[in-house]
Structures are given as C-alpha cells and as structure tokens.
Design brief:
The structure is a single chain. By secondary structure, the protein is an alpha+beta fold. The chain has one domain: Glutaredoxin (3-Layer(aba) Sandwich). The chain has a four-stranded mixed β-sheet with strand order 2-1-3-4, sandwiched between helices. The protein is globular. The protein starts with a strand and ends with a helix.
C-alpha cells in the first residue's frame, strides 16, 4: 500500500469527508493540521503551490481537493 499523507484543517468539510473515506476503506492516512503547524503549512505550499486543503499525497502523486475517483485509482481500490 502506498503511503498516504493529507494536509488539512479542522474546519475543512472536504478534509473530514476524505478522512471518513480513508477510515471506511481501512487506509492509514497521516494527517497534518496546517492551521497549527507552520512547517507543514509551508510544505503544503511547496507541494501544491497553494494554501487550499485538502491536499492528499499518495506515494509520489499529489491530489488537490477530495477527488474520490482519482484517489481510488491511485490506491487501486
């Protein structure tokens, strides 16, 4: 299974939907709260070129927003 990382904020509705999706599928996802972690916030900008969340990194691929079809494809679900 590819490593899954998500940059999010507590108030982000799509972040919560993504977390629920990963939980339902039994996928481990490391979540970083960019509202509380300045270093991870800068990492988010470096990876995506923006401040919007969620940004989900699956292996070497970056998914901006909760694109369930793309996430499922990258995870071979």
């Amino acid at each position: 299974m590819k490593k899954v990382i998500m940059y999010s904020t507590p108030a982000c509705g799509y972040c919560n939907v993504a977390k629920d999706f990963f939980d339902e599928k039994g996928i481990e996802c490391e979540v970083f709260d960019v509202s509380a972690d300045e270093a991870k916030r800068q990492e988010l900008v470096d990876i995506s070129g923006q401040m919007g969340v969620p940004v989900i990194v699956i292996g070497e691929d970056v998914v901006i927003g909760f694109d369930q079809a793309k996430i499922s494809e990258l995870l071979s679900l």
